[in-house]
Amino acid sequence: MHPGDILRSGSVGLRTRRLRAGLSALGIAIGIAAMVAVLGISESSKNDLLSVLDKLGTNLISVKASTGIGAGGSGQLPDGAPLMLGHVRPVEQVSYVTSVNAKVRRTDYIPSEQTGGITVKAATSQLLDTIGGSVARGRFLDETSSQYPTTVLGSVAAQRLGIDEPGARIWLGDQWFEVIGVLDPLTLAQDIDRSAMIGVPVARRLFDTTAAPETVYLRANPDKVVAVESVIPATANPDNPDQVQVSRPSDAIEARAAASNAFTALFLGLGAVALLVGGVGIANVMVISVLERRSEIGLRRALGATRRHVAVQFLSEALLLSVIGGAGGVTLGALVTAGYDLTRGWAIVVPLIGVIGGLGAALCIGAIAGLYPALRAARLAPAEALRTV
Amino acid sequence: MSELALPEVVLGLRDVHKSFPGSPPTEVLFGVSLDVLGGELVALVGPSGSGKSTLLNIVGTLDRPTSGAVRIAGYDSAELSDRQLSAVRARELGFVFQQFFLLDGMTALDNVADGLLYTGTGRAERREQAAEALERVGLGHRVSHHPNQMSGGERQRVAIARAVVGHPALVLADEPTGNLDTRSSRSIIDLLHELNDEGATILVITHDREIATSFPRQIELRDGRVESDTGSALTPAGREP
Ligand SMILES: Nc1ncnc2c1ncn2[C@@H]1O[C@H](COP(=O)(O)OP(=O)(O)OP(=O)(O)O)[C@@H](O)[C@H]1O
Ligand SMILES: [Mg+2]
Q1: What is the model's pTM?
Q2: How many whole angstroms from B55 Cα to the centroid of ligand 2?
Q3: Does the beta carbon of B62 lie inside 6 Å of ligand 1?
Q4: Low-confidence residues of chain A, pLDDT below 70?
Q5: Among residues A9, A103, A325, A365, which one has the fewest Cβ atoms lying within 10 Å of its Cβ?
């Protein structure tokens, strides 16, 4: 039989029982939509994280003194560490922050215990460039402003202090500092979000800050990152290389992108259950359809249909139902994904595997659900089928 | 068919028995033998339960006899597989049922065209022949109507068009007027006469004496046996007149 004829005879039953067909296709559609949307959203979020990484690069290395139990040592890097690290050839940029023994408050009326968790750090003027950050308002520290009581606030620090415009003054240590800039949230150095940064010279002068850096940030040649990482401990602290902790902040984001979310698995499972229920719905509708259409089966046998023709007709009806449901589900799932991506400001990503897998799953379900009713229809003896009760 | 050619034996039954399984088995036909020639119009009559429908199903290859031989258009049904029997039904047989059995989801034209669906004919050709068949049964103006928009008489005409669209060797009708009023019945019987005049071989089960006597030949069945047969008015090929 011609494929067009198979399709036409397979769709007669659906056309004459539209509501029933629609409802049973809906069951499949919901299952497929859930699975496509879950895959789509998790893929979009991964894509977003990776595009952030792309922008920020994976060649930022942070170097700290080891801390915690058993680390030993002074908990500080040697004073000369930034200089020494700058001499490593594939290192392109070096900057560092040093912790400052001072508290910061909105005004001097606020008791000194209420710092809102904001720390004060002395930062070199290339820091922002090195960590790939940007200024929301104002400007970052430079050679000149590093000499004077001026400060730049991380995004969280600015929010907690209630400052969103440069020009305000805050009480830092025991004198007024002028806020000259506020930063955008930083992806690769989130502890800086919670700090107020001042210049290294002014920190030395006013607060006796040591020259020992707390964290050194390096940008290495992207092709030599691993090699650079391996020489860092001995370079930064030649006497105690084991007291140096080297990390790549981008690793955390990469890990987050790679981790399959527990919710993804859960929702995929729920989608699969919905799909199964949808399949049972189709099987149910097909069994009823075969019972109701005994005389049509008998008629078709009288017109010359073989058993195989009858089986193919009912199987194609089940497949048609599930493909309609599957296509509807894929569309719905893609729309949900697109809507979610838009509200998150992500690029819209509908993974092909979801689309193909969704349609494939629908087809499989339809084939399984339709097989038994189709065989039952085919086994019906023609004279028996035509006998009206 | 040329004037000189002698009619073929379209249907031949020899000592056909039929019993349905059960305990005890229901014995329905006890040795039915008869021949129908090409071009005949035959009425099959008999009381209810005498086995008319059972016989028609066997003639139509929808059921197999328990014993005995059935030849249709030259084929011995006992030698054919289910698949081959289906092909015989598709090409050599046309069916008309008391309940019409039209599909509501399709137009009259598509219902009639489905009479050729299992013959391997292309769709365009099927529809063309279906339009012709509807014209022949006087429904040329109802081509795109759906069965549920038609009267019982019109529906039965559509069903008859579907039965004759492939020019089968034999048309079988089981009480085609059983669901119709007198006037519609009359016109359906007239139509069967017309089709027979054009060359169709038709076997009709009916309860209506008047209809039966209007046919050139009547076979009466009683308790699964041929009680009487007015005999063929035609002369079979290969036999002495
Ligand atoms: N599938 C079957 N199983 C068992 N018995 C059957 C079956 N089909 C028919 N019979 C029996 O065979 C007998 C003849 O039935 P059939 O339908 O051939 O009669 P009929 O002559 O067509 O009667 P009517 O004029 O009422 O249609 C009946 O007694 C019926 O009960
Ligand atoms: Mg009957």
Answers
A1: 0.78
A2: 9
A3: no
A4: 68-75, 112-114, 260-262, 389
A5: A103
Same domain, A225 and A259: no
pLDDT in tens, B136-186: 999 999 999 999 999 999 999 999 999 999 999 999 999 999 999 999 999
Residues of A in contact with B93 (CB under 8 A): 302
CA distances from A247 to A358, B80, B147 (A): 40, 81, 78
Report residue A174: phi and psi, to 5°.
Answer: -135, 40
Asked if residue A69 and residue A109 are part of one domain, the reply reads: yes
Domain count of the fold of chain A? 2
**Do residues A72 and A192 touch, judged by C-beta distance below 8 A?**
no
Q: Which of residues 281-310 of A touch B (CB under 8 A)?
A: 295-296, 298-309
User: Rounded CA gap, A362 and A171, in Å?
Assistant: 65
Query: What is the reported pLDDT for A77?
Result: 85
The encoded tokens of residue B147 equal 């069965």
Smallest Cβ–Cβ distance between A307 and the set B62, B82, B89 belongs to B82
Cα A13 to ligand 1 centre (Å):
30
DSSP state of A148: S
Q: Residues A233, A64: contact at Cβ < 8 Å?
A: no
Domains of chain B: 9-229 (3.40.50.300)
Model pLDDT, residue A300: 97
pLDDT of residue B240: 43
The verdict on A28 and A116 lying in the same domain is no
User: What pLDDT, on a 0 to 100 scale, did the predictor assign at position B2?
Assistant: 46
Task: Give yes or no: residues A186 and A291 share one domain.
Answer: no
d(CA B77, CA A33): 53
Looking only at the bridges linking them, the beta strands covering A175-183 and B202-205 are: unpaired
| pLDDT tens digit sequence for A131-171 | 888 999 999 999 999 999 999 999 999 998 888 889 999 99
* Size of chain B, expressed as the number of residues it contains: 241
Strand partners, A178: A150, A169
Provide the shortest C-alpha distance from residue B164 to chain A (in Å). Answer: 11
Chain B CB contacts of A305 under 8 Å are 86, 90, 117-118
Q: Which residues contact B202 (CB under 8 A, 6 or more apart)?
A: B40, B41, B42, B170, B171, B172, B173, B192, B195, B196
Q: What does the pLDDT look like over B97-124, one tens digit per residue?
A: 999 999 998 999 999 999 999 999 999 9
Considering only CB atoms, B62 lies closest to which of A296, A306, A386, namely A386
